[in-house]
Amino acid sequence: MTKKEINPYVTLICTHCEFYKEDDFDLECAAFKVLKTMLQNGRITPVEIKDALK
Ligand code: SF4
After folding, report:
1. Partner of 10 for a Cys bridge, out of 4, 27, 38, 50, CB 3.0 to 4.6 A?
2. pTM for the full model?
3. pLDDT tens digit string along 28-51?
4. What percent of the chain has pLDDT over 70?
């Protein structure tokens, strides 16, 4: 993975996570992988993620 801050999935998901570290480039937890796959498949939208994190 490239630097986390330029990965749109990391920006959308990880920057709201209490375990997020800017220098952790490669680690992807199970929740991240599930949400990323659901976003890629169109099962959830970025807006729904943002709404859930309000
Ligand atoms: S990969 Fe998982 S644990 Fe790590 S910052 Fe993203 S959501 Fe949090």
Report:
1. 4
2. 0.83
3. 999 999 999 999 999 999 999 999
4. 91
- Cα–Cα distance for residue pair 54/37, rounded to 1 Å: 22
Site to substitute for ligand 1 among 15, 27, 38, most atoms within 8 A of C-beta: 27
Say if ligand 1 is within 6 A of residue 13 CB: yes
Range 11-46 burial, b when 16+ CB lie within 10 A, else e: ebbbeeeeeeeeeeeeebeeeeeebbeebeeeeeee
CB burial class (10 A; 0-12, 13-18, 19+) of residue 49? middle
